[in-house]
User: Fold these one by one.
Assistant:
Number 1:
Amino acid sequence: MKAALFAAVLLATGLAVSSVPAAAGDIQLNPVLRIGGNLPTPQNVAYPYGVLKIHVDATDLHHRVFNVHETVPVKPGTPVYLLYPSWIPGVHQPYSPIKNVAGLVIKGNGKVIPWQRDEYDVRAFRVDVPAGVSSLDVSFKFLSSQGRGQGPIRMTPEMLEMAWNNVSLYPAGYFTNRIQTVASVTLPQGWKFGTALELAGSDGNTHTFKPIDYMNLVDSPLMAGKYFERLDIASKRSPPVHVDVMADKPGDLEIKPEHLKALKNVVVQMDKLYGAFHFNHYDFLLWLSDNMSGAGLEHHRSSEDGTDADYFTKWSPSQANALLTHEFNHSWNGKYRRAANHATPDFNVAVDDSLLWVYEGQTQFWGNVIAVRAGLESRDTGFAKLAATAARYDMDRPGLRSWRTVQDTTNDPTIAQRTPLPYRNYQGSEDYYSAGQLIWLAVDGKLRQLSHNKRSLDDFARAFFGMNPGAWDINTYTLDDIVATLGRIQPFDWKAFLRERLDGHMNLADGLALEGWKLEYVDEPTKAAKAMQAHDKERGIDLTYSLGLRASRDGKLNDVRWNGPAFKAGLSPAMQIIAVNGTGFNGDVLKQAVKDAKGNDQPIELLVKNFDRYKTLAVDYHDGLKYPKLVRIEGSADYLSKVYKAR
Ligand SMILES: [Zn+2]
């Protein structure tokens, strides 16, 4: 759909046509009350004191410092709380980088006004505004990571990523979509930038954006870089869609016609899937760097996609390439359609993550499927990835088969904060992504079986995410809405079907049978799996489904499967394998030992190092090497191939 048509749709639906999104009053935000603390409960009224102005000087590349200056209109003589956003949408946890904020000075009429950090909330600053002061001048620095485990690196000599939630405070007590802002940035000389924000004007290297509410400002980060390309990948029917690419060096921006064609296909295939776009323009902010930290963070009209420097130069359909399709899918699933308890009134109210198996699980499903439909990945690559996912839930998540549910893993962003775990396979971690993908695959298979292939998850996608073309407010939903939509497409007890998978301990790999396929283990990786691994620079040895371990090239164990053969022999992920049956460790030696032990009763002897102690452990395993592979179930309909076929 063209931009002009989009405006017409907005007029027809009574929404305001401007750079500012739909009127806030129409949005059903979750009125969760704060429990304890001193902060005022956010109200669904327009911020009455004026427009919040935020300026960021992002030119100090040497020190990796963002210098912030804000003007916050306030009521004279009244206390105000300024909040540092805590729950950042898409991050799913309440741990924004307040530790990187320093140098906070607040002034009114030129005089310093003391601030006090709230005793219940370290991201809230109380300011007793003196009489006669109607505006606060707020200055602080965002000291971005210098590396060394301080968090993601967001500034290099060649590029920077600026999330407005990192570089602004906002007044408490109001829905963030009711606080109007004007944001501006000063960038290094000659740098270009990408953002979903609309430009009002530029003065040299300082760029000022059109007014936008604070909720959508935070949802519209800015990427800037020295080496920058802007690719137009819009389809005939879509609003403008661009890929803004930044790289460490010009040579990484070698974008060939086949790359552009596949990226354009993504927009075409998404349109065929949903039949509607929920943005007036969209920008992929794609950075290719060995220096910046990688990322994948969705927004309504943009996404942050940070990947390897050789993304284009090593491009091949035989490697995994679903980052962009995953993040793009969130514009429909997660941003436009949002779980009711996920749509909070501000960024400092707790978010209910319990429907992340829809938000991330179905996005994992479509991100992978669309990558194949668009030609970013070959079908064989897509199937190899699916085999790996199915095997994980067949054998390598013993915790989910015993003590833990997929539903409970929606708490993991808060529990583990995306830090490494001692025994991830037993603990489970954010399995709502990939287990969610398998649950939606089972829904697709069940829809096809019940309807004799007349209905599929494509129908659900269109019905649930594709309504109201052009609208880009927030359209909330509950589990009952999902169940009702599935029931309209194909009558069935969908609630029981979903809850059994979410709350039980069933083998989610079994859902493949509904698509006419099953999982088998073979004694060498499939050709597609090998081709995919060839792109993995960190590649070590993966014997997850045989010995039950993964190790780096020098024998350091990355993972030991709970109650697997290696675990039972006494191995732990803290150890390093030094020798195998008396021979110095390498991957081939270990694989040969597994082959040699097949079918006899000779244990595999591993000399392992644990701190400065050495010990020989005997692994009693005789079933040979095993790698996952998808195999057709003879005599059944092949629905899976239809799922991955381009529309
Ligand atoms: Zn996601």
Number 2:
Amino acid sequence: MDEQGTAGRLSHGWYVVLTCEAEHEHLEANQEAIGIDLGFLHFATLSDGSTIENPRYYRQAEQRLKHLQQALSRKQRGSTRRRKAVKQVAKAHRKVANQRRDFLHKQSRKLITTYGLLVFEELQPANMSKRPKPKQDENGKYLPNGAAAKGGLNKSMVDAGWGMFQQFCTYKAENAGRHVLFVDPRHTSQVCSGCGTVKKKELSERWHSCQCGTELDRDHNAALNILALGRRVQARA
Ligand SMILES: [Zn+2]
């Protein structure tokens, strides 16, 4: 897709290419900063306590993809039906990818427009251990611990979304004269954003409660810590 958007005529009809944004717009200076915690329950939790939710169509598209893949696995090799099924799976993949890209563009644009500084955790392989793992009780039954049970299939999609989201934010920020910082992800969910005490929490604990009186959602607490780290980095620069 080019920058301007084009329209033209092909032998079999019209084609229109629209660009989703004017990327090189320099925005007015803005001192507002926000910390962003990327997660599973919510796509993102911001340091102001608000959240960005994964669109519902993700789950629907995933389910469809899963069914198509199962159908494909039952088709005989070399058969016409199999070839058709392969095409369907590829098409469903493309659809999910496009929807995800769309969602990430929209959300990153919103953040860049609103804030002068975005602070993220660095994504690194070690960071992925942040993901809640399914826990089993003595009988081998899975305990409810947030996103764990839902993990499975959508993990790779969610992960890919995080990296792409950071990329989108970064280049949009550059084009708009805004800033994005990445901070060390260690301890951001364990430290109390109110008093700095380390408050060990199980992954299943969704609430941060500290003796200092700080009471808030676990991810909100993390987002506040991420923001504080970002401000510290900014002050040193
Ligand atoms: Zn505290």
